[in-house]
Amino acid sequence: MQITERQKLISLYLGEAWRRAARGLAIGRAMRLKWSPANTAKLIVAPTDLRVVDPFVAEEILQGRFPLAGRVLDAGDRSPFDFEPPSPAFATRLHSFAWLRHIRSDKSPRACANARAITDSWIGQHGARTGGEAWDHDVVAQRIIAWLSHSPVVLQDTDGGFYRRFLASLVFQVRFLRREADFLPIGLKRLRVRIALAMASIAMESRSSTIRRAARDLNREIDLQILADGGHVSRNPQAAVELLFDLLPLRQTYINLGHEVPVRLIPAIDRMYPAIRFFRHQGGDLALFNGASSTLANELMCVLRYDESAGQPFKALPHSHFHRLAAGATAIIMDTGRPLCPELSKTAHAGCLSFELSSGRNRFIVNSGSPRFANDKLRQLARTTAAHSTVAVGTSSSARISSSAFLGPLMSSGVTEVVEQRQTGPDGSDRLCVSHDGYLARFGLWHEREIRLNEAGNKIAGRDRFLLPDRTPSAKPPSEPTVARFHIHPAISIERIDQRKVRLVAPDGESWVFSSPANDLVIGEDVFFADVSGVRPSRQLELIFTGPEVRWFLAHHA
Questions:
Q1: What distance in Å separates the CA atoms of residue 168 and residue 44, rounded to the nearest whole number?
Q2: Helix 55-62 vs helix 109-126: crossing angle, to nearest 10
Q3: Cα 470 vs. chain centroid, distance in angstroms?
Q4: For site-directed labelling of 261, which of 47, 124, 340, 467 has its Cα 20 to 30 A away?
């Protein structure tokens, strides 16, 4: 291990130790908070929930079955909190109460009474003890938003006793988050905590000073996490969609109640929509970078229907570090960045220089994406370079992921510098050439990828090669077996033409021919993590380096 990397790890350990100690003190103070039905406040409004409702889920819950996070718990006539959750993801969904939105599809007295009974059982079992998955700060934030948004369902025809318990629990949870929020690591979850606190400050009876403080804290967090180009600091395309589900109702609640809207809120929303359009493929799906998984089309449309911005997608997101090449019905989206700080690298993927290709309504070349409801082993596997459409050297990734239980799975080393060059050719083609130093420390080489898309959008020329430390071309490949991988979407079939050429065919008949004149083309087994139905098998194209570079081409066939 190099001295610089060792020093970096020591710094990370010290920083994490300080954060945990400070957070421990905050939690200790929060645990001394007294939960009492006497500590109640008045509910003023129920913010709108924009998420899609499913009548099937509502009916299942009414029958005592909970289909959450890809698992089903049959609780019968008992509370679901009486049972061991079938998976950590299930526990998160159950304790977050996001499933309450489905009850909106059946507001019958029986359905509302059932939701109220489940909520009351949670208050009785978990409401006064701040520990376990029920009190993970992100779960608490989601639960506060859900309880506020769906309070008309839970409180329909209720008695005074439950009303006081419900409001007291909300107050207790809000106070808990206020004590802990300042000590949370930067990321999507901390921003959601600030959103929940801002929403609670106006949806519940609060002092003017509390409303102003929550707005100020939200402004500061937006400044830290929503980049100038509209991307989120996690560099996950899906993060903006998740945030807008909460930011849009929050904005409207401020307006409806006549409160001053936090000054950073509306500009942030206006920036995020163009970023979402940037990451959308021609068929409407979001690109799979840095933890993004499948996004249901109806969920995405629930957010996009409030998009008041206009125009074609940007060619690049300079602060998020992505490029988009588009012509005709073809779009290429390429990752040209790295984690913006060590804390954010815990969910980042080692996919620098990976790209995705869509044409018409079809995604042809993709990254493997991140599984929605899988164990940690699969999530970490999805972060490796080999799970992305780029070049991997041996079993190494372009970034080393820490296995430290204390630090978490952050990237302890990897890409530190990325060099970009983009230009338009005299023939109207769009050329992007990018290199990174992720393999420099271990193999003494830079990886450079060049992609050229012609003006008509029907021909793509690519080259992957290695450069020496002085950035001159290397005369030989790395010392370990090196492979350029192109992950093919599961909906696409692969037809072999010859040893160096294949045809990629979409269900609607559209096709592209992939070729590599100087290299044999291997069709390998693959796994697609980001399918809506779960992890599923797929295939990939592999180009093995026998020299210092590989060239590859794609030609569209209608």
A1: 15
A2: 70
A3: 36
A4: 340
Query: How many residues are present in the chain?
Result: 558
Max CA pair span of the chain: 79
- Report in angstroms the alpha-carbon separations of 61 from 65, 66, 82, 91, 265: 5, 5, 15, 15, 35
Nearest-angstrom CA–CA distance, 77 and 65: 10
CA-to-CA dists, residue 25 to 21, 179, 183, 302, angstroms: 6, 9, 10, 40
Q: Distance between CA 329 and CA 282 in Å, rounded?
A: 7
H-helix or E-strand spanning residue 303: helix 297-304
Can you tell me the distance from the alpha carbon of 417 to that of 438, in angstroms, rounded to the nearest whole number?
A: 8
Distance from C-alpha of 8 to C-alpha of 411, rounded to nearest angstrom: 11
Residues 6+ apart with CB under 8 A from 360: 282, 283, 329, 506, 508, 510
**Do the Cβ atoms of 290 and 234 come closer than 8 Å?**
yes
Query: What ranges in 127-207 are assigned the alpha helix state H?
Result: 137-149, 151-154, 160-180, 188-203
The 8-class DSSP code of residue 490 comes to: T
Distance CA 448, CA 353 (A): 8
Distances (CA, A) of 139 to 93, 142, 426: 8, 5, 54
Phi, psi (5° rounding) for residue 503? -110, 130
CA–CA separation, 127 and 445 (whole Å): 55
Q: With 0-12 CB in 10 A as exposed, 13-18 as middle and 19+ as buried, what is 109?
A: exposed
Strand-pair partners of 355: 334
For residues 358 and 362, give the distance between their C-alpha atoms in angstroms, rounded to a whole number: 6
The per-residue pLDDT string of the chain (558 residues; one tens digit each, 9 = 90 and over) reads 444 656 655 666 666 666 666 666 655 555 555 555 555 678 999 999 999 999 999 999 999 999 999 899 999 999 999 999 999 999 999 999 999 999 998 889 999 999 999 999 999 999 988 889 999 999 999 999 999 999 999 999 888 899 999 999 999 999 999 999 999 999 999 999 999 999 999 999 999 999 999 999 999 999 999 999 999 999 999 999 999 999 999 999 999 999 999 999 999 999 999 999 999 998 889 999 999 998 877 888 888 888 877 777 899 999 999 999 999 999 999 999 999 888 888 999 999 999 999 999 999 999 999 998 878 889 999 999 999 999 999 888 998 888 776 778 888 788 999 999 999 988 999 999 999 999 999 999 999 999 999 999 999 999 999 999 999 999 888 889 999 999 999 999 999 999 999 999 999 999 999 999 988 899 999 999 998 888 999 999 999 998 889 999 999 986
Indicate the DSSP class of residue 232: B
State the pTM of this model. Answer: 0.92
Tokens of 286: 């979001």
